[in-house]
Amino acid sequence: MSKIHRIDRRDFVKLLGLATGGIVLGCSIGSDKKDFIPTIDAEGFHPNLFIHLEKNGNITIIASRSEMGQGIRTSLASAIADELEADWKYITVEQAIGHEKYGNQNTDGSRSVRTQLTPMRKMGASAKMMLLAAAAKKWNIAPKDCSAKNHFVINKITKETLFFGDLVAEASLISLPEEDSIQLKKVEDFKFIGKTLKSVDLKDFTHGTAAYGMDIRLPNMKFAAIARCPVAFGTVKKFNKKYAEEVQGVESVFELPRLIPPTGKFFGMFGGMTVIANNTWAAFQGKANLKIEWDGGANASFDSETFKKTLTSRVHKTGKLVPGGKGNVRSAFKAAVKIVEATYHVPFLAHTPMEVPNATAWFQGNNIEVWAPVQDPQTARSELSHFFEIPEENITVNVTFLGGGFGRKSKSDFVVEAVAISKQINAPVQVVWTREDDVQHDFYHATSAQYLKGSLDRNGNVSGWLQRVGFPSIVSSFTPFSEYASGFELNQGFTNNPYILKNFRLENVQAEANIRIGWMRSVVHIHSGFGINSFIDELAFAAKKDPIQFHLNLLGPDRTIAGSAGFPFHSKRFKNVLNKTASMANWGKKLPKNHGLGVAIHYSFYSYVATIVEVSVIDKKVKVENIWTSIDCGLALNKDNVKNQLEGAAIFGMSIALYGKISIEEGAVAQNNFYDYQMTRMKDAPNIHINIVDAMNEPPTGVGEPGVPVIAPAICNAIFNATGERVRSLPLSDLGMV
Amino acid sequence: MIINLLINGKLHAIEAPEEMPLLWAIRDIIGLTGTKFGCGVSQCGACSVLLDGQLIKSCSLPVSGADGKEILTIEGSSENLEFLRQAWSDGNVPQCGYCQSGQLIAATSLLDTTENPTDNEIDAVMSANICRCGTYTRIKKAIHKAVTLKNEVI
């Protein structure tokens, strides 16, 4: 439910530093309920301010969500502009600071459009109503005799027109419309929504003028690098800073104590040794010259290969029963004509956004100001208030462009570091992580083991399904000693398995965390998508059936399953994307020698995705030749942007399948940089073909993440199709296949 | 030592340790922040610039090696860079945009040396640049488009 309020314009102007006159619309929207991230949630209804119209017709639209490549600044602005009947050339977008006035700004979970589209449309529509009323007053006619088009109000009787900018003074005197009087446009009248608008930031992106976190420059700003213990949560035992201090440009070196967050919220920071310098490179050099003896502490003996074996043995024994099972799997297995078993692994993964974690902070006694590439500026602000005991109203979090986020920049540890250092040196400071810092001190995507056992009846249909999963929980980063995956995590593909299974049993096994666990683009769906799609392919093969037909049979007749957050699951839409993809890929066609096709489907963030991958495998080396993806994400707000996201998700998914692996030896991450934690590069990039289902009358659902979980299983299924060899443990590079 | 850098046609005489990588001299001393830090070890291409017309990773070249030389960064301009910018915009290429400075500079170097590159020639040069958002297919298409745009003008 939304409520519209009149906002004090001075407050707004002060907030944005805008000086020109105009009308301002404020609106409060309910914070969207977090559907899978626990704790740290803003609650209730908060005022929001999004539109500023100037006398010259220029309109500033406020982007409340962080821009990290998902195109949100353009997409939500276009929804406002559409309802406002604005001419796009007058629109500029400004980034909001972190403030509860804007509602929940936490940019993750593929939900910005899902939760903000309607409130943003109402913003635009109510502003338009005020302009119509203002014009009507000028012409002395009824508002219903006015319409708006392309930045003008039209007098329907006389055909006279008035420019939006010329209505500023009058519109300022019009009272805000009641919320239930706001009428939104019909789908067929959309001008921008559902079409393609190019990014509003193209000029900056192509001229090097977009300011990311690392590009902030303040007068007298220092640069800082931090040496952190290679083992998570380890501490400094002894150090020698002599050689660090000798580096030209280094100004000081000191120990930074760890900040431990309270149970249930915030991220804190590792602490370590920090080097302050007058340029980034000197700080890096100083850090490299530090001699530090660490106390690794409790995690110092952790070894990820050993842990893989431990998890594997656990999923091969009975685990904790997860509620929601069906039928009796034991008797189904007894009556089975055929039993299929398989165990799957996904390693730890790091986010590695191109822009490393960094933040610029200025601690000034009673005030803190930070400039940082953060996905969740409000949590950063609350966290700073907690650790530095300064009220939130004295803390300003400026959100810069994010050079990639993928979940890494949801965590504000690097912001806390910058403030702690600024407080210590009493000067503005920019903390910059090296790439090695980023690879070795992430909040990692958890490793997982899954055991699946399925039975086939005499008709080759699945009669029983047992799945045991184990992966360290995200909750462990908030509540220490959380040793089982939580309900919200299992509900990402495991408990909400959409297949028609009469006998279904899910078990959860112990998986303790010995490094920081976080969420990465598509989160637990990476595990569920890989396990379930790989296993269905194995079952289809055992049943001697076509994998696509096998999926379709398992999806069953058209039916609707009640879902969370008002998004029911429709099997028909799932089958539709699968059929669309099969037809795009010409499934069943004769393939060149050594080529294979593989399919995977996955439902995540309320969107339906099907992908088919074509690989060639020559001399045991895999090349991904083609990827076809169809998505039903309901109303696709900005078509080309959706396409770009899915193309990107294919590449991101390929990095997981081909290369992604963080290994830990004696508690420390073994990888360093892009030479040993590799990414998909252009030479690996296949032809990517995207289909967006026309579902303009459905509410919008996730786009940024749903394209990821299907890629790894579709690649592995394609490898099987080409070679008869099953890949059950990622990545392919571990098997010498790339 | 005093180092003279001719960046985008403007002379900068700076005082810097001779072993400081060119990247940090450009970013932290001169203050041009369009050239990006991505890895520090010539692995990602985010810091790409042209040095006397040669494509280099500025994170790995000591600033003394650039003394007296001409440098093109993303803040600058060249005939091919302008066509590429246009093609990048036409194709709505960037997502987060962070790597695109390096991508555009690398593509400029490619077109400076190869008038009409094939897909393989594009792969050979552009595979040195990582885009974590995964805009590779758009980048490749945009490079071809830039060639088309250039031919149209002539």
TrEMBL record, chain A:
SMART domains: Ald_Xan_dh_C (SM01008)
Domain of life: Bacteria
Domain named Aldehyde oxidase/xanthine dehydrogenase a/b hammerhead: residues: 207-298
Sections of the chain in a coiled coil: none
UniProt-listed Pfam families: MoCoBD_1, MoCoBD_2
GO MF, one example: oxidoreductase activity
Record-linked InterPro entries: Ald_Oxase/Xan_DH_a/b, AldOxase/xan_DH_MoCoBD1, AldOxase/xan_DH_MoCoBD2, AldOxase/xan_DH_Mopterin-bd_sf, N-heterocyclic_Hydroxylase, OxRdtase_Mopterin-bd_su_IorB, TAT_signal
PANTHER family: ALDEHYDE DEHYDROGENASE (PTHR47495), BLR6219 PROTEIN (PTHR47495:SF3)
Protein name: Twin-arginine translocation pathway signal
Source organism (scientific name): Polaribacter irgensii 23-P
UniProtKB/TrEMBL annotation, chain B:
Superkingdom as given in the UniProt entry: Bacteria
Keyword Iron-sulfur: yes
GO molecular-function term, one example from the UniProt record: 2 iron, 2 sulfur cluster binding
Residue stretches making up the 2Fe-2S ferredoxin-type domain: 1-77
CDD domains xref list: fer2
Alphabetical list of PROSITE patterns matching this protein: 2FE2S_FER_2
Alphabetized UniProt keyword annotations: 2Fe-2S, Iron, Iron-sulfur, Metal-binding
InterPro entries in alphabetical order: 2Fe-2S-bd (IPR002888), 2Fe-2S-bd_dom_sf (IPR036884), 2Fe-2S_ferredoxin-like_sf (IPR036010), 2Fe-2S_ferredoxin-type (IPR001041), Beta-grasp_dom_sf (IPR012675), Diverse_Oxidoreductases (IPR051452)
PANTHER family per the UniProt record, alphabetical: BLR6218 PROTEIN, OXIDOREDUCTASE WITH IRON-SULFUR SUBUNIT
Protein name: Probable oxidoreductase
Source organism of the structure: Polaribacter irgensii 23-P
